[in-house]
Write a structure and sequence with these properties.
The chain is mainly beta. It has one helix spanning 33-41; strands at 15-18, 46-50, 54-56, 60-62, 65-70, 75-78, 84-86, 90-95, 102-105, 111-115, 118-121, 125-128, 130-134, 137-140, 144-147, 153-155, 160-163, 167-169, 177-179, 182-185, 189-190, 193-195, 198-201. The strands form three sheets. The protein has a nine-stranded mixed beta sheet, with helices on one face. A seven-stranded parallel beta sheet has the order 3-6-9-12-15-18-21, with no helix packed on it. Strands 4-7-10-13-16-19-22 form a seven-stranded parallel beta sheet. The longest helix has 9 residues, at 33-41. The protein is elongated and about 80 Å long. The protein starts with 14 loop residues before the first strand and ends with a strand.
Length: 202
């Protein structure tokens, strides 16, 4: 019999997007993380799942919508600044259904994530000179923030932070949490708090 030779070209896809019912959206998967986020923002309750390690050239803005980012054991890295900037109208949940999934900035003296909206962290590792800069509402349910220089969480006067579990490690200068807003701590491993406002510890 004749033998046919077929050549496959492997395309690297950055992420897939599924709707709130778990169905993959039209056009998914996407070659860029930015494209996946744009589509997800238009589908309430959708999930962006990383399919490969992604290196950004600029910060990714989450401007609106309610969506979940599943790291899926992959790494989301920006070498030129913060990784995620969440606007007031946005509601983002970060989780890792795999193991060792990381969001990391390799740029000096910036925080990995800036939140002015609603951010929920369920799992995953967040790394950088600073961790999360919060002006909105942050629910830290579990996961790890490892900051090399600043605090793991810097909470500004407009911000409210709830820490239910997880590990928060601060950098060389301050403690793990630098609080100028409202901070609720229920559990977790927190290496010290610098506080100039209200802390509720239960």
């Amino acid at each position: 019999g004749a033998t046919a030779t077929v050549e496959f070209t492997l395309l690297n896809y950055a992420a897939k997007v599924t709707d709130k019912d778990g169905n993959e959206l039209e056009g998914s998967p996407y070659k860029t993380f930015a494209d996946a986020i744009t589509v997800a923002q238009g589908s309430e309750g959708s999930t962006v799942t990383l399919l490969d390690d992604v290196t950004l050239t600029k910060q990714q803005v989450i401007s609106s919508g309610k969506l979940t980012l599943d790291l899926n054991g992959k790494n989301l890295i920006n070498e030129n600044g913060r990784v995620l900037y969440i606007y007031e109208e946005a509601d983002l949940t970060i989780k890792d259904s795999g193991e060792g999934g990381t969001i990391e900035t390799k740029y000096e003296y910036v925080d990995c994530i800036e939140n002015s909206g609603k951010l929920t962290v369920e799992s995953g590792i967040i790394k950088g000179d600073g961790g999360i800069r919060n002006y909105g509402v942050l629910y830290f349910n579990d996961g790890t923030v490892e900051a090399d220089f600043y605090a793991a969480i810097t909470n500004y006067s407009s911000g409210t932070v709830y820490v239910y579990n997880g590990v928060l490690k601060g950098g060389k200068n301050p403690a793990a949490v630098d609080n100028n807003g409202t901070l609720y701590i229920y559990d977790g491993e927190i290496k010290g708090i610098t506080n100039s406002n209200t802390v509720y510890i239960s």
